[in-house]
Amino acid sequence: MPNGHPSLYASITTLALLLLSLEKCEPRYHYHKHHSSSPKFNSGNQISLPPASAPAEPPSMSKDINTTRSEHRVFDVRSYGAIGDGSSNDAQAFRAAWKAACTANSSVILVPSDGVFMVTSTIFSGPCRPGLVLQIDGVVMPPDGPANWPAADSKKQWLVFYRVNNMILQGGGTIEGKGQDWGLTEAHYPGLATALRFFMSYNVTVGRLRIRNSPQFHIKFDGCEGVHIEGLSISSPSFSPNTDGIHIENTKSVGIYDSIISNGDDCISIGPGCSNVDIANVTCGPSHGISIGSLGVHNSQACVTNVKVRNARIRDSDNGLRIKTWQGGTGSVSGISFEDIAMENVRNCIIVDQYYCLSKQCLNQTSAVWVTDVAYSNIKGTYDVRSAPVHFACSDTVACTNITMSEVELLPHEGEMVDDPFCWNAYGVLETLTIPPIYCLQEGQPQSLALEDIPAMGCS
Ligand SMILES: *[C@@H]1O[C@H](CO)[C@@H](O)[C@H](O)[C@H]1NC(C)=O
Ligand SMILES: *[C@@H]1O[C@H](CO)[C@@H](O)[C@H](O)[C@H]1NC(C)=O
Ligand SMILES: *[C@@H]1O[C@H](CO)[C@@H](O)[C@H](O)[C@H]1NC(C)=O
Ligand SMILES: *[C@@H]1O[C@H](CO)[C@@H](O)[C@H](O)[C@H]1NC(C)=O
Ligand SMILES: *[C@@H]1O[C@H](CO)[C@@H](O)[C@H](O)[C@H]1NC(C)=O
Ligand SMILES: *[C@@H]1O[C@H](CO)[C@@H](O)[C@H](O)[C@H]1NC(C)=O
């Protein structure tokens, strides 16, 4: 057996059987008009190598600012009264340091490496003078559990940056969310705090930092434009509910690179109002994968466009690449590409779920967020056989259109293959053969949808 991997051996055997069945069945098969050579498809008995070389360790940020240089004025939180003993409330000192640094040019707020700073919920407001760096070299944490939070503090968010422009958050330290003190094993608890939130901010860089055990989302951006994330490391237990790693909504021009995320919910989630999102070199897992959605809740309009995910690795996750929308929404998800993704033991590797519903009692509705122009290419690896690896559950009334797939090869991680991908009202093209074979995508355009009349379902 090769390399002592029984599952790999089983996979190869399965693949051989699969290839035999492919020959017999002659699946619907399209050559893309731009392809000059025939599609690459293994005729041998081994699967191709996983495509991604996403990081195992977050490398240091290429743009790391050297804050010890003379052009920076350093505002050490200790100089403003922070104790850093892990129990004194250092929030006032952090606020004072912020206030002083915010009004000076090229400031560095330093959280030194030899301290553990307990900081209660705080909103750091801008705008500030250009060149502000928050350098976290030590540990920053909230009070132990919600009962110890001051009564006046919002329990929905912990550290908030509001109207900050051109700011950099970096450092070799840790944001420790102490999520275990919030009863993480309980079901959805609406009061849980987001650890870090950037709200209505522009040109924000977050790099080389650890964020751990958030009670809820680890880092969230809303109403922002120009976000660069690099070398971030996020971890919380796989059983912790709603602990999304990076969540963005109403945010444009986002780059997420070289980061490692393991948590109990979406690795990266992209909410309504996002466009121009570039994600590369990210490793997720355990997690719930990379998700666009949920969109269209309470009959809302949602627009998400131009999202590119490339060179990612997703392992031991409940979903891989997911688009989820509620019934009754409007708007569209368009121009999405997933490229060079390695899967390892992932349930629902590729999934569009337009029937997303938390209560399981959602009524059928006629409107839906239109999902169109979604490309999957070079998606390889293994799936958890508890669900079909490919699942397109599109709206009854608004079909998914122009789904393109090439070089999709997914094999069971362990056990028997699930060879029936699911498609409902999904239109698109297979540019190469896929494993498992996906016969269920429909050709052409749905008759029910006059696409010319509703170019992007109200999204500009
Ligand atoms: C940062 O700048 C200081 C002062 O100019 C210099 O001594 C140090 O080597 C620099 N560190 C790095 C990592 O470049
Ligand atoms: C900040 O820099 C600008 C541009 O160089 C300068 O005009 C301004 O006086 C500086 N402000 C402070 C507070 O140093
Ligand atoms: C953000 O950065 C872009 C590109 O560097 C620049 O054009 C834009 O003016 C910046 N926005 C703000 C609010 O500083
Ligand atoms: C991704 O990682 C590879 C290999 O480390 C590197 O060559 C490439 O520049 C990275 N891409 C991005 C967008 O960070
Ligand atoms: C919604 O429609 C599906 C498919 O037609 C049907 O199976 C299901 O029972 C309907 N659900 C409700 C709540 O009406
Ligand atoms: C289908 O989607 C791709 C991007 O995935 C796009 O380049 C192409 O123009 C779309 N085709 C049609 C007919 O809209």
UniProtKB/TrEMBL annotation:
Signal peptide: 1-27
Top-level lineage group: Eukaryota
Keyword vocabulary terms for this entry: Cell wall, Cell wall biogenesis/degradation, Glycosidase, Hydrolase, Secreted, Signal
Keyword match Transferase: no
GO annotation terms (biological process): carbohydrate metabolic process; cell wall organization
SMART domains membership: PbH1
Entry keyword Transport: no
PROSITE patterns found in the cross-reference section: POLYGALACTURONASE (PS00502)
GO MF annotations in UniProt: polygalacturonase activity
Active site, UniProt feature: H288
Family of the protein in this entry: Belongs to the glycosyl hydrolase 28 family.
Name listed for the protein in its UniProt record: Polygalacturonase
Organism of provenance: Zingiber officinale
